[in-house]
Design a protein that fits this description.
single chain; alpha+beta; 227 residues; 6-stranded mixed beta sheet; Cytochrome Bc1 Complex, Chain A, domain 1
C-alpha cells in the first residue's frame, strides 16, 4: 500500500491475531473495507481443488441468522458495492460504502465471512453456478492459454493447478468438508482487514467501533479481542 509520510497507514494486531490496517483519506466521503484471507488454491489438497473459490461463493449465501443475499441487500441498498475474488495465495471480500454507512454495513461483511452457514440446499445450487463458471472459462482461449502456461511453468506445484478446480473435484466437495476448511483457514490470525477512505482512525481502531455486529449477541468475532 502506497501512503504519504504525512498520511501513513496505521497497522494494528489485535489480541486474537487479526491484523487491521487503517488508511484515512481526508475529505473522502466513501470507505472501502477489504477482508483478506491468507488462503487460496495454493493451500488446497488434490481432493480439495477448487474449494477456496467455491467457499468464496458460499460466503454470500448467509449465516445462521442472515439469509442468503443479505450482505448484497444491505450494501447495495445503501448505494454501495460488494464483491470478492480468489487467487492462489488469497481470498478477499470487499465493500465500498458511504462513510456514514460504515458502522451499519461492516457487521454484515464480518458476519458472512466468519460465520457462513453453508447450507446444503444452497451448496448444491451454487455448485451448479461454479460448474457453469468453469465451463465458460473453458470456452475462453485466454483462460486456456493462461492455464496451459501455468501448468508448464509449475508442473509439480499448486500454482500449476486451476483455482477454479475441476468438474470432478468440485463435484465431489461436500458442505461438511467446506465447513471444516473454513474453520481451519479463516481463523483471525489468517485475516487482514484493510479500511481505506473517509474514516477517523481514533474511532475505527477502537474496540467499540467494528466490534458490534448484526448478530443477536452483538458480537463480531473477528474484531473481538477475546475471540
Amino acid at each position: 500500500m502506497q501512503t504519504s509520510p504525512l498520511n501513513p497507514a496505521l497497522r494494528h494486531t489485535l489480541a486474537n491475531g487479526l491484523t487491521v490496517i487503517l488508511h484515512p483519506i481526508p475529505l473522502t466521503d466513501a470507505v472501502t473495507v477489504d477482508i483478506w484471507v491468507r488462503t487460496g488454491g495454493h493451500d488446497e489438497t488434490a481432493e480439495q481443488l477448487g474449494i477456496s473459490h467455491f467457499l468464496e461463493h458460499m460466503v454470500f449465501k448467509g449465516t445462521e441468522r442472515l439469509a442468503p443475499g443479505a450482505l448484497d441487500q444491505a450494501i447495495e441498498g445503501r448505494g454501495g458495492i460488494t464483491n470478492a475474488s480468489t487467487g492462489q495465495d488469497y481470498t478477499h471480500y470487499y465493500i465500498t460504502v458511504a462513510s456514514a454507512d460504515l458502522a451499519d454495513s461492516l457487521p454484515y461483511l464480518t458476519e458472512v465471512v466468519t460465520q457462513p452457514a453453508i447450507p446444503a440446499v444452497e451448496f448444491d445450487r451454487e455448485r451448479q453456478v461454479v460448474l457453469e463458471e468453469m465451463r465458460r472459462a473453458g470456452d475462453s482461449p485466454d483462460y486456456l492459454a493462461h492455464q496451459s502456461l501455468l501448468a508448464q511453468l509449475y508442473p509439480d506445484h499448486p500454482y500449476g493447478r486451476p483455482v477454479l478446480g475441476t468438474e470432478d473435484s468440485v463435484g465431489s466437495l461436500t458442505p461438511e468438508a467446506m465447513r471444516d476448511y473454513h474453520r481451519s483457514r479463516y481463523s483471525p490470525e489468517q485475516l487482514t482487514v484493510v479500511v481505506v477512505g473517509g474514516i477517523d482512525p481514533g474511532r475505527n481502531a477502537g474496540a467499540d467501533h467494528p466490534t458490534t455486529g448484526p448478530s443477536a449477541s452483538g458480537s463480531c468475532p473477528i474484531f473481538s479481542a477475546d475471540a
